[in-house]
Amino acid sequence: MTEIQNETASQQKDFRRVVSMAGDVSLRNYTVRDIRDLKGKKQLTQTLAFTPDEAAAAEAAGIDLINVRWNPLDPRESFAVCEAAPHTFTTFCMPLTLCTSEQEALRIGFQAMEGGGDGIYCAWSLQFIEAMANAGIPVQGHAGLVPRRSTWTGGLRAVGKTISEAEKIYQDFKDLEQAGAWSVECEVIPHRIMSELTKRTSLITVSLGSGVGGDVQFLFAQDILGDGPGPFPRHAKIYRDFHKMRQDMQKERIAAFSEFAADIRSGGYPAPENLVEVDDAVIEEFIARHPVEH
């Protein structure tokens, strides 16, 4: 075998054979059980990939877990991102206002799982979470700052800085446990509170801006790549400047199109090396057969 084949075979020794809800057999780096078994022993990495290229890069880089936003208008876009990282445990993130009943939650949850997901992120009601969990769908909840519910917590700010807020998060964890969730995204919670909460729950805690106390360390691909004009959140660490790269690329596009147009106007394009030649005899015979009419 080639070096690449050897590497692939070696990596597959650590994969788990799983069967999706659609009945497809595939290989995964982790299962829910594996992640639960690692609680308190190893901190995993997670990112939210917005494109297939980002998902493929995350898998190639060894990111442990990937989130993918669910597109209710065209789920195929979400499936394409998932398919780009076929061996990575993937959670589909459902929009907060996507459904209005337990039946809709089940239908959407099953559709996502049949598309290759390993779990569902749901910031809906506990009833919806419980309905999906009872159907065997691994469901992740959300606690701390929930941006689309930030009116209840006073805007986009850290949650858990007072004893009453810390107690509320603790109760949210217990409610999620009772509903059957297996994991919880913990957004912008004070890091020492986060560490204590993780010790007191069976849930896998996913830290987004909540320090090192979670079982999983989570950061959006946009934040890691610097892919936007900002401002970025305080918890973000920017490892690249894709925004500048895209601006530079746009400048280069404009320059290239300008040079092309200038070439046309000056006669610099097409040049002889851009042309296809033909024998003189062919031209002469064509002209003889089809004289120009005046």
TrEMBL record:
The keyword Methyltransferase applies. The keyword Nucleus does not apply. Gene3D superfamilies: Phosphoenolpyruvate-binding domains. InterPro entries: Pantoate_hydroxy_MeTrfase (IPR003700), Pyrv/PenolPyrv_kinase-like_dom (IPR015813), Pyrv_kinase-like_dom_sf (IPR040442). GO terms for molecular function: 3-methyl-2-oxobutanoate hydroxymethyltransferase activity; magnesium ion binding; methyltransferase activity. Its EC number is 2.1.2.11. One of its GO terms (biological process) is methylation. Keywords: Methyltransferase, Pantothenate biosynthesis, Transferase. PANTHER family: 3-METHYL-2-OXOBUTANOATE HYDROXYMETHYLTRANSFERASE. Belongs to the PanB family. Homodecamer; pentamer of dimers. This is 3-methyl-2-oxobutanoate hydroxymethyltransferase.
